[in-house]
Amino acid sequence: MKPVLLLIALLLSAPAWADWKPVEKTETYAIPGQTAEALYRAIGEKGPVVGKDSAGNARRVIAHTNFKLTWQRDYRLESGGCVLKSARPKLIITYTLPKPAGTLSAPVQARWDIFAAGLAAHEKVHGAGIVEMVDKIVAFSVGLTVADDPGCTKIRTELTKRLDELSKAQRQASRDFDKVEFGPGGNLQKLIAAFLIGG
Fold first, then answer.
1. pTM (two decimals)
2. CB distance 76 to 146 below 8 Å
3. Domain boundaries in the chain?
4. Residue 11 CB-half CA count within 13 A
5. Quick one: which of 111, 116, 153, 188 could link to 181 by a disulfide (CB 3.0–4.6 Å)?
6. What is the H or E stretch that residue 135 is in?
7. What's the pLDDT tens digit per position in 112-168?
């Protein structure tokens, strides 16, 4: 087979969902301060709120990755059953990161740049986990068939159950990753220490 024909054949045989890509956005929140200590303290005061602690106070984090996921799904009736022919995701991942509100001295700026790059890299891992979850959802969804489902209701129940399982697994993997990163000797622990004390 000629290379061009082979390429066309491969493209035609590839799943219709394989060409989706997430949209990634970065938002920042301003933190005042001229020293590493002041900047880090401001992060604790102004970081993204991700819930409340046991005392009911806002629980803030240094950085955060959030996402919005919607779908275009094509359900088809076949022989009294229902088949999910295609499931195209629209995924928007938003990274929220700190940004100094003012100009920093050269030494503090140099430390900040390393710190900020490390934070961004950490959040990108969370983003990659979300993309992996969506890929798993698509792989499970496309071609899913439920017999005796003329109203395509049973298939939606089955799909929702599986999506819930994959979502819980992604959230747990994200928590496990943070636990290691912020734990003793973890990358984020080292990153914070290097930013605050230098070296």
1. 0.85
2. no
3. 16-197
4. 6
5. 188
6. helix 106-141
7. 999 999 999 999 999 999 999 999 999 999 999 999 999 999 999 999 999 999 999
